[in-house]
Amino acid sequence: MAYTKKQISILGIVSITSFMGTFLISSINIALPDIEKTFDLNALELSWIVTAFLLSSAMFLLPVGRWGDLSGIRRLFKIGVIVFTLSSLICGLVGNGFWLIFFRFVQGIGAAFSSTTGPAILVSAFLPKYRGRVLGMSVAAVYLGLAFGPFAGGFLTQYLGWRSIFILSSILGLLATIVAFLFLGKDEIVAKQTKKINLKGTLFYMLGLVSLVYGSSQIPAFLGWGLMILGSLFLVVFWMFETRSSFPVIDTKLFTGNRLFAYSNIAALINYSATFAIVFLLSLYLQKIQNLNPRDAGSILVAQPIIMAIFSPIAGRLSDRIQPRFLTSIGMTMCTLGLAGFVFLSSTTPIWIIVILLIWLGLGFALFSSPNMSTIMGSVPKSAYGQASGTASTMRVLGQIVSMTIVTLFFAGLFAKTAVKNVDSEVFISAVRYGFASFALISLIGIYFSFTRGNVSK
């Protein structure tokens, strides 16, 4: 295929921002022990360095997806890159843990704007028969960020301090902002009569997520359980609002009347729920139990995303030729087996076994992700690309939140408010094992939704 100059520019811009977000996530995981020492945080507070970013992303992904369909996806993409860049810089300059968590929350809002609109911009610029290919390239950029993050994060943390990670992210953000304003162009004019959206239910959606996530950090206290029940009720109310609304944030009919779309999104939610916290747990495990420094721990964790980056474009191209559900089901099965392997971690587990399991998981995730995203975008008309992209991104982030919430539950139950560095090693390993056992069971359920979704019309 011969790409036009405009298509190359769009592919490059979306890939850069995709790389930028995942680079920051994966590099910060390596820096967590040093951040813990700098601000004297306990285990639960430390988990909020990651969770705050995910929570704000999840809160805004759905509204931004719908807003983008109505007001223009390119404009929102540019706003997101600017917010992400400025908040990254501030995160590198803060003086205490509270403000770091706060601006990580702001950073997640910027990421929501760019990550929701990016795939929609990309898909709209290419013919449907090339959808899997270009999405595979974009996903490869995501995994390159994941691959480069642990190594670069470990190197920067060890020699320049954890703040340098945020400074580097702000520089990348500045470059992405300049490129976006130079080459991305403007949105097509949308008819005024279509610029309507009902946001009544959005407040319940946001309050529901906040209640669920914060409540999980307060368990086993009564307040924690109460907030999680309240959060679940808020989400039910949100769904009811959207079902009855003439101008919903999310078209619930896409879930109730489009099995391919619904099952693909559920499979994505399950897959990310089962796999996201792998790096978080192993980063702490390698530095606490195996006594590795940040640089060496990052060098080991790079194995999984490197495999993802190599095989995602291949899986994307294959999904243009054969039914994606076969690829995604194989990938989900491989993830399930790999997660089950980590249940047997101990203080004496050889590093080479950990690397093999990470490579196996990386291949499984690559086989799942690109074909699954291609299925989601191919199951809706062009007018719903923004909403489909926003929904897919929301499933990803909600899955990541679920993954971190599971970890938080075990941390809260076993560590109380003790810092990770002060937790008994055997107790810590037990929490890690419980986490991976939960993830393996979740992934096992995902195989069903992945395989039974149905076939994509070619």
Task: Please characterize this protein's 3D structure.
- The protein is mostly helical and 458 residues long.
- The chain has 17 helices and no strands.
- The protein has two domains: 5-184 and 249-451, Growth Hormone, Chain: A, CATH 1.20.1250; 199-248.
- It is 80% helix and 0% strand.
- α2 (43-71) runs antiparallel to α7, α5 (131-159) packs antiparallel against α12 and α14 packs antiparallel against α17 (425-451).
- The longest helix has 35 residues, at 5-39.
Could you name the CATH homologous superfamily of the largest domain? MFS general substrate transporter like domains
State the CATH topology of the largest domain.
Answer: Growth Hormone, Chain: A
Largest sheet, described in full?
A: none
Mean pLDDT: 83
Number of helical regions: 17
Q: Which blocks of ≥5 consecutive residues have pLDDT under 50?
A: none
The gist of it:
This protein is mostly helical and 458 residues long. It has 17 helices and no strands.
Key terms for this structure?
2 domains, single chain, globular, Growth Hormone, Chain: A
